[in-house]
Design goal:
Elements (H helix, E strand, L loop, with lengths): L1 H33 L2 E5 L5 E2 L7 E2 L1 E5 L2 E6 L1 H4 L13 H6 L11 E4 L5 E4 L1 E6 L1 H9 L8 H14 L10 E6 L26 E5 L4 E4 L1 H7 L9 E5 L5 E7 L12 H17 L2 E9 L1 H12 L6 E6 L14 E4 L5 E9 L29 H13 L3 E6 L2 H17 L5 H4 L3 E4 L5 H10 L2 E3 L2 H7 L3 H10 L5 H7 L18 H10 L22 H7 L2 H6 L17 E4 L16 E6 L2 E5 L3
Parallel strand pairs: 1-6, 8-14, 9-10, 14-15, 15-17, 17-18, 18-19, 19-20
Antiparallel strand pairs: 1-4, 2-3, 4-5, 7-21, 10-11, 11-13, 12-13, 16-17, 21-22, 22-23
Bound molecules: 2-acetamido-2-deoxy-beta-D-glucopyranose (4 copies) and zinc ion.
One 2-acetamido-2-deoxy-beta-D-glucopyranose binds next to α7.
């Protein structure tokens, strides 16, 4: 008996050990299996998906880098590995984390009722490296030329005892339209500060379309050409250069190229800031070959902390589309794309260099300038199109927009074989000043208008002075552009560093058409209030529409199962709070590919 019992208990011990071991392995397996699944839920259904089928939901669940499920509590509980908890009352799912954390159970985070979760935000038009560059010596706050000069002097004084007075001093951000008299500054203004005398100084205007240099720079250049195609050397009444170089004339200034280390520093500054503001993808609006190589290296090494969509740029009349390979979902996690090119049709309104059909209201002897002869632009655009590149053309003035729409119309007519909206998606960047016919033509042709709402609220102080009331009525016409768009898209951007990196400024400007202090030339209802976007339209412009403009609407841009797990959590509901409270919202977490890259979810 004893023996048998002994045998039996040995057998039981064996079998129970085996069972325990198997259970342990099973639990481990469950732990492993479930550890990459998690969900964020909101009792207030403050998850805005930008998906028409289910615009607001309780939960979004992630598996690894992608979205696993989107829906209300009941929907999520039908999906593995949440199903075992389906017997619980639905709302209980949200409360579990506050009780116990079983490691094998998918983790569920509960948002505070004031918070919201939206798809990762995109900036459809920005200048990543320039933004870091401007951060070194920013001149945005200068109220006059004298002010700007003083800022430069203070910067030079603060440099660690650098005796190398032959090195260049570079800054960015001045805006003479905000200064008394609204006149361009001059080289001589910079000599007012003794410490700047004889120094090589180059200061880029806030919009990147003009540079202000010191007398030493003028001397170093020596003889200047009489005229510059697509640019202007500003001269005084005696024909002497004043120190302002506009658009293509900026190429005459021999500023040294940036080293890779400097570029890395500029990049780091911008991306750190971008993630804090909830950006998960950025369209870089003119990427030189050196920068393409730089981004590519980061992508290869898996060190690209954000999604980038590049618009390659070479200032050249020669076609270069075959010299640089396109990059599609390139690098670790496919975060890098290069399939668009940037071309500049004209300059900017601030420096009277946007190309107009009839003269400027406040400068009757000029209609601005074109940076390419129309036939050269046409040849370039059609060649890029033929080689599979998207074209993104900078157009501010009504003439620039007209010329490029003509080229696009012609190209589309001639190309009946391919599906334009599937393979080309031609873009116009800014699309500021449009004749009523061209406003309609954008929609009819399916040309994507890539606009920056803060451009409207910055320009509103002087746009009427430049173009007069009649032309203004169909300019900055964002609601009309969206309304007429055959693709129903209006991607939004900031053009940073021209404007802030914080996309909430664009959201606020789009829905209010007011300055930050709540005013506008047309009062508290906003500047041309008919052109305001709804909040849903603005959010879609910063997510889905931007993705569409980058051929990525099946990958990012809304919260739909199978898309990348890119999202942002804000501490207040920007979709419903009073307008005056929108800008007070703070990002508490930013996630890219399912990884929290800024802040935290608690
Ligand atoms: C910026 O540089 C710091 C220090 O090297 C690094 O820890 C951080 O991850 C970088 N951030 C980005 C966005 O590249
Ligand atoms: C239009 O297409 C024809 C035939 O493919 C081609 O020969 C011609 O150069 C094209 N014209 C333009 C303006 O692209
Ligand atoms: C063109 O492509 C778009 C998007 O891929 C698709 O929705 C549309 O039906 C296509 N049109 C034609 C005529 O094939
Ligand atoms: C939108 O389109 C409709 C019909 O085409 C038109 O009547 C309306 O005025 C448009 N709205 C705006 C803001 O352009
Ligand atoms: Zn730009």
């Amino acid at each position: 008996m004893d023996r048998r019992h002994g045998l039996d208990s040995k057998g039981a011990w064996f079998w129970s050990s085996l069972a325990a071991g198997a259970a342990f392995v099973w639990v481990l397996a469950q732990t492993r299996q479930a550890s990459d699944v998690w969900a964020v839920c909101s009792r207030a259904r403050n998850i805005y998906t930008v998906d028409d089928e289910r615009p607001r939901v309780n939960c979004v669940a992630m598996r690894g880098t992608t979205i696993l499920a989107v829906g209300d509590y009941g929907d999520i509980l039908e999906v593995e590995p949440f199903r075992p908890y389906a017997y619980l009352p639905h709302a209980f799912l949200a409360w579990i984390p506050e009780f116990v954390q079983v490691r094998s159970r998918p983790r569920v985070y509960q948002l505070a009722d004031d918070s919201i979760l939206v798809p990762g935000l995109a900036d459809a038009h920005a200048h990543i490296i320039e933004n870091g560059y401007m951060a070194r010596l920013p001149l945005k706050d200068a109220e006059s030329s004298k002010d700007a000069t003083a800022l430069v002097a203070a910067y030079v004084r603060a440099q660690p005892s650098d005796p190398d007075t032959a090195s260049w001093v570079e800054g960015m951000g001045w805006d003479h339209t905000r200064w008394p008299g609204a006149q361009f500054p001059t080289a001589l203004d910079l000599d007012a500060e003794p410490i700047l005398k004889g120094r090589l100084i180059s200061l880029t205007r806030v919009d990147g379309h003009a540079r202000w240099v010191s007398p030493a720079v003028l001397e170093s250049i020596g003889d200047l050409p009489e005229t510059v195609d697509g640019g202007v050397v500003v001269r005084d009444e005696h024909g002497m250069a004043t120190g302002i170089f506009i658009d293509n004339a900026m190429d005459l200034i021999p500023v040294p190229p940036w080293s890779e280390a400097l570029m890395a520093d500029f990049f780091n500054r911008t991306i750190t800031e971008s993630l804090q503001y909830g950006l998960t993808s950025i369209h870089d609006a003119d990427t030189s070959p050196a920068r393409i190589a730089f981004f590519r290296k980061l992508a290869d090494a898996g060190r690209l902390p954000i999604r980038l969509y590049l618009m390659g740029y070479i200032e050249s009349n020669e076609y270069w589309g075959r010299g640089i390979p396109r990059l599609l979902d390139y690098g670790v996690q496919g975060r890098l794309n290069l399939r668009s090119v940037k071309l500049f049709a004209d300059g900017a309104l601030g420096s009277w260099s946007a190309s107009l059909l009839s003269p400027y209201t406040d400068l009757q002897d000029t209609t601005g300038l074109l940076r390419y002869a129309p036939d050269v632009l046409k040849r370039l655009i059609q060649q890029f199109h033929a080689d599979g590149w998207q074209t993104s053309v900078h157009c501010i003035g009504d003439r620039a927009n007209q010329i490029v729409l003509d080229i696009y119309e012609d190209t589309i007519k001639n190309d009946t074989g391919s599906n334009i909206s599937a393979v080309w998606r031609p873009r116009i960047e800014h699309a500021v000043m449009l004749t009523p016919q061209d406003l309609e033509r954008f929609g009819r042709l399916g040309v994507i208008a890539s606009v920056q709402p803060t451009q409207a609220t910055t320009d509103m102080t002087y746009a009427e002075t430049r173009m007069g009331p009649e032309r203004l009525a169909t300019s900055y016409a964002y609601q009309s552009l969206l309304n007429s768009s055959s693709n129903h898209v209006l991607p939004l951007g900031s053009d940073f560093p021209v404007e802030s990196v914080n996309p909430l400024f664009g959201f606020y400007a789009a829905v209010t058409r007011l300055s930050v202090d709540g005013s506008s030339p047309h009062g508290a209802a906003g500047w041309f209030p008919d052109q305001r976007l709804t909040r849903a339209q603005a959010l879609k412009g910063m997510t889905y529409d931007a993705a569409y403009a980058a051929f990525a609407e099946n990958v990012i841009g809304s919260l739909v199962p199978g898309k990348k797990a890119d999202f942002v959590i804000l501490d207040r509901d920007i979709m419903t709070v009073p307008e005056s409270e929108i800008l007070g919202a703070k990002v508490t977490a930013t996630a890219i590919d399912g990884e929290i890259v800024y802040g935290s979810i608690s």
